[in-house]
């Protein structure tokens, strides 16, 4: 039986002649929460997008639940960065959440009562059921992130890939997202999160993968966030980052 | 109104709806200016196709024009992505170049032929009825009405069929791709439709009106609704209003119908901008006024509450001394105090103001006690 949710082998991705990822090998076991960390331009978002089939790799393979991406697409939910869409688009909170049902229904089937119920439940879980009919352009940053999360919940996936879900959200939303991700994990889901804040990695994730175009390290957080690894990924800044981590000024 | 007038109005309305539907999707992607780029670039396709087939009635002209519209969009994207030129600059580079190339080709190769640049810009709406579809000896209405009618029908069918995936791609193309919808397919589909719309409409309407109708009604509709389906319906409605209004005004004033309709799309947008329920100028002005009023009431309440149990309250809370303490003109004090009295937020006893329990609660909330 395959115990891996995601397996990336020899993955190289390039934008023009600039490699964004060099020969990355990464294994994500089922049922864990993994933080994908690394400095800006390390290829974190690129890795997720490649797994989702949005970017064609120059070399290497991606397997999701043991199958090539196309065959397991319906088992993966992708939550892009909040800033990647135009929130002035004419749509309500419910419209956006309901988009999560499209993968099951296809273009020819309209969402039925069951899907509307699913969507209502998902909005309930992210605390937006009162705002279901609100236009998305009236939402705060935290609420926007929660709509995205509701849409992912409607997808009922087994693997969740989230690109910086904690970026610029208030503390209440942050803890709501965290609780939600943990409950997805308890239900057997696997979660991979692009994350920026090194200080919270240990509290939030079972495993971490440290990227800097190449994979510096992956595995249990304590084994990944070592002085040597951080130095390699972040270079000169590492000393101050470590100071924060050790709690010494 | 005679038969020719009716036919002209029909062409104007069908053209308006066709443009509004195709244009709405450009406006929603913040690509309004692409309508401009496309409508100017198609001339090159027409001229090139004419040079090849030497027949103005040939369907190859239609195809050539549509392709050159799509080509213009592709070129804009290419400049943006491969050459790193900003989008607005890329458009500014592409369509004047293609349009001018077409004008030069007309003047050099086709000056004996009726392909005049003036008609391209202003359209020939008034003359549309002179070119009917004939089968035998019977004529079945203007050719452009049939063409535009077909286009409207096809657009409506496609939008209805693919409404869900279109909406997903248009809102979040990365998410769309992640669930197996091809954003490129829909983007180029819409671009082709927009190009075909420009081509079909510009002969009758002219390129200026085509751009006005692609951008105007959709922009007006966006002020009224936050649901995509309603935005599309409203865009069609505003397009029909503009076309009808422009037709009658133009006929009455005896000026260019295309020009008048274009003016009316602007006029309709102006009205919407004034009157729209939430985004409209009047609504925003009223909202702002309410907020200022509310803020001033709050200020008064906080002031009264701060001094309500203090010995100096006979000075600080006296109605005729508030203008000094709050540094407000007396007229403003009168206004705010009167409104607060009416809302039962303050009481007035012998010229001395004080908070009611409701007013006290509001003041507490404001200062966060």
Task: Report what the structure shows.
The complex is a heterodimer of chains A (249) and B (369). Chain A has 249 residues and is an alpha/beta fold. Helix content of chain A is 36%, strand content 26%. Chain A has a single domain, classed as Rossmann fold. The longest helix of chain A is centred in the C-terminal third of the chain and has 16 residues, at 171-186. Chain B folds into two domains: 3-277, ABC transporter involved in vitamin B12 uptake, BtuC (Orthogonal Bundle), CATH 1.10.3470; 283-367, Arc Repressor Mutant, subunit A (Orthogonal Bundle). Helices cover 76% and strands 5% of the residues of chain B. Chain B is built from 17 helices and four strands. Chain B has a two-stranded antiparallel ribbon with strand order 1-2. In chain B, helix 11 (228-253) packs across helix 12.
Straight-line distance between termini of chain A: 48 Å
The largest contact between protein chains, plus residue counts on each side, is: A-B, 32 and 25 residues
Helix segment tally of chain A:
11
Query: What is the string of helix and strand elements of chain A?
Result: EEEHEEHEHHHHEHEHEEHHH
Q: Which percent range describes the beta-strand content of chain B? A: under 5%
* CATH level-4 homologous superfamily of chain A: P-loop containing nucleotide triphosphate hydrolases
Second-tier CATH architecture of the largest domain in chain B:
Orthogonal Bundle
Helix content estimate of chain A: 25-40%
Largest sheet of chain A: 6 strands, mixed
Note the quaternary state here.
heterodimer
Shape of chain A: globular
Quickly give the structural class of chain A: alpha/beta
Q: CATH topology of the largest domain in chain B, what is it called?
A: ABC transporter involved in vitamin B12 uptake, BtuC
CATH class value of the largest domain in chain B? Mainly Alpha
Give the name of the CATH superfamily of the largest domain in chain B.
Answer: ABC transporter involved in vitamin B12 uptake, BtuC
CATH top level class name of chain A: Alpha Beta
The number of helical segments of chain B is: 17
The SS-based structural class of chain B is mainly alpha
């Amino acid at each position: 039986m395959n115990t891996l949710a995601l397996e990336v082998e020899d993955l190289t991705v390039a934008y023009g002649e600039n490699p964004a990822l060099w020969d990355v090998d990464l294994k994500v076991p089922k049922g864990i929460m993994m933080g994908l960390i690394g400095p800006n331009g390390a290829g974190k978002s690129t890795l997720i997008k490649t797994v989702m089939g949005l970017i064609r790799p120059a070399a290497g393979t991606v397997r999701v639940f043991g199958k090539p991406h196309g065959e397991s697409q319906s088992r993966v939910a992708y939550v892009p960065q909040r800033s990647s869409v135009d929130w002035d688009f004419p749509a309500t909170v419910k419209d956006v959440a309901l988009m999560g049902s499209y993968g099951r229904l296809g273009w020819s089937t309209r969402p039925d009562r069951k899907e509307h119920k699913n969507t209502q439940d998902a909005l309930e879980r992210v605390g937006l059921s009162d705002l279901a009919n609100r236009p998305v352009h009236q939402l705060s940053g935290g609420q926007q992130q929660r709509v995205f999360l509701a849409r992912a919940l409607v997808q009922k996936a087994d693997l969740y890939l989230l690109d910086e879900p904690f970026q610029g959200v208030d503390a209440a939303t942050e803890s709501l997202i965290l609780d939600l991700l943990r409950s997805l994990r308890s239900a057997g889901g696997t979660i991979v999160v692009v994350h920026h804040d090194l200080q919270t990695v240990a509290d939030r994730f079972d495993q971490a993968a440290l990227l800097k175009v190449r994979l510096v390290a992956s595995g249990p957080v304590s084994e990944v966030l070592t002085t040597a690894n951080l130095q390699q990924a972040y270079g000169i800044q590492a000393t101050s980052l470590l100071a924060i981590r050790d709690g010494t000024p | 109104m005679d038969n020719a007038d009716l036919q002209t109005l029909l062409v104007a309305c069908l053209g308006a709806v066709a443009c509004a539907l195709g244009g709405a999707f450009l406006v929603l992607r913040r690509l309004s200016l692409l309508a401009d780029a496309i409508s100017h670039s198609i001339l090159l396709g027409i001229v090139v196709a004419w040079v090849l087939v030497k027949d103005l009635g040939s369907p190859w002209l239609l195809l050539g024009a549509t392709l050159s519209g799509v080509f213009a969009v592709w070129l804009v994207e290419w400049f943006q992505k491969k050459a790193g030129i900003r989008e607005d600059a890329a458009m500014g580079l592409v369509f004047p170049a293609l349009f001018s190339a077409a004008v030069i080709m007309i003047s050099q190769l086709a000056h004996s032929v009726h392909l005049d640049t003036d008609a391209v810009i202003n359209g020939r709406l008034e003359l549309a009825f002179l070119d009917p579809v004939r089968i035998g000896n019977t004529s079945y209405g203007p050719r452009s009405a049939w063409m535009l009618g077909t286009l409207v029908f096809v657009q409506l069918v496609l939008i209805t069929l693919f409404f869900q995936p279109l909406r997903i791609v248009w809102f979040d193309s990365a998410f769309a791709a992640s669930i197996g919808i091809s954003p490129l397919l829909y983007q180029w589909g819409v671009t082709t439709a927009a190009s075909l719309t420009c081509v079909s409409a510009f002969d009758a309407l002219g390129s200026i009106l085509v751009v006005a109708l692609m951008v105007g009604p959709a922009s007006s509709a966006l002020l009224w609704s936050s649901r995509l389906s309603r935005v599309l319906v409203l865009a069609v409605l505003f397009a029909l209003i503009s076309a009808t209004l422009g037709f009658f005004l133009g006929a009455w004033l005896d000026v260019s119908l295309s020009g008048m309709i274009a003016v009316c799309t602007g006029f309709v947008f102006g009205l919407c901008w004034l009157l729209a329920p939430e985004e409209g100028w009047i609504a925003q002005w009223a909202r702002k006024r309410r907020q200022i009023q509310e803020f001033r009431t709050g200020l008064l309440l906080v002031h009264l509450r701060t001094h309500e149990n203090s010995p100096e309250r006979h000075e600080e809370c006296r109605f005729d001394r508030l203008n000094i303490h709050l540094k407000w003109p007396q007229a403003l004090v009168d206004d705010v105090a009167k409104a607060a009295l009416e809302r039962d937020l303050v009481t007035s006893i012998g010229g001395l103001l004080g908070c009611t329990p409701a007013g006290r609660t509001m003041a507490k909330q404001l200062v966060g006690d």
